[in-house]
Amino acid sequence: MSIVRSNIFDPFSLDVWDPFQGFPFNTNRSLTTFDNDTSTFVNARIDWKETPEAHVFKADLPGMKKEEVKVEVEEGNVLKISGQRSREKEEKNDKWHRVERSSGQFLRRFRLPENAKVDQVKAAMENGVLTVTVPKEEVKKPEAKANEISG
């Protein structure tokens, strides 16, 4: 499994990419953390905006409970958002006509800038939208000191 940038213009975005996803042959899946049938849910869409006070991430995760989602900081400054939606149990007498809702695991990583306060990360889930707030350190501007001109 390789890590690639989903947006080449954004040096902070990292996605997990499986180069064999969708191939008809069975690869050694023990090397990856995803199942073949999770391809539609692997790339959970997440918005990242920066305000003067914080970095704010919003993810649409309809139908998921907060217990199914994990928000972690790893390697000091990498925000990791992951989760798993279970597949609905099939009964013997059920006849499915269409299955379009995705299930399985998703994982997204974002490299945070140095001004992020990673020890103060807050996450909230409301109406299927996960909001992760990472406060920023105040940038201290160097004070200008007036020097007298002699002569």
From TrEMBL:
SHSP domain span: 37-151
Pfam family, one: HSP20
Entry keyword set: Stress response
InterPro entries per record: A-crystallin/Hsp20_dom, HSP20-like_chaperone, Small_HSP
Family to which the UniProt record says this protein belongs: Belongs to the small heat shock protein (HSP20) family.
Name of this chain's protein: 18.2 kDa class I heat shock protein
Organism of provenance: Rhynchospora pubera
Source organism phylogeny: Eukaryota, Viridiplantae, Streptophyta, Embryophyta, Tracheophyta
